[in-house]
Amino acid sequence: MEFGEIHIDDFSQRIEDVVPHEDEKERASNCYVMSLVAVMVGLPMPIINLAATGIFYLMSRRGTFYVRWNALQALVSQVPLFIMNNILFWWTVRVLFCYTDLSSAYIAYFITVNLYNIYDFVETVRSAIHTRKGVTHRWYLYSTITDKICKR
Prior knowledge:
Blueprint: H1 22-41, H2 46-60, H3 65-96, H4 104-132, H5 142-149
Helix pairs in contact: 1-2, 1-3, 1-4, 2-3, 3-4, 3-5
């Protein structure tokens, strides 16, 4: 096994092998759409998006494998975003209230986090569209983590 390679022991658990029904496609797509709505509603507070996605995953735990896998991938993708946005939020508060000076490190981090937010937004929209069509959209890195966590 090479570095960075993750093998799944049971190949019957591949998400690509699942043929979802129409209602499964809709519910799986809704986890990504709900994530986007939560971003729009709670933009200044990063915890709202993570909490909304987490609640949707908890509600989908007893659902079909297809719905659980997509809900878990949406949740896994929100964790690093939450951490990055949370750091940026509190750093911005410190800059605004003059506890910290505006530095090039802050500007670089601000640009990086905003680029990552744009990437996450685009991938979430793509995931919602592909999932609604019944096609599995695997996110780089997050899908392998989801494969390891989600069991049939």
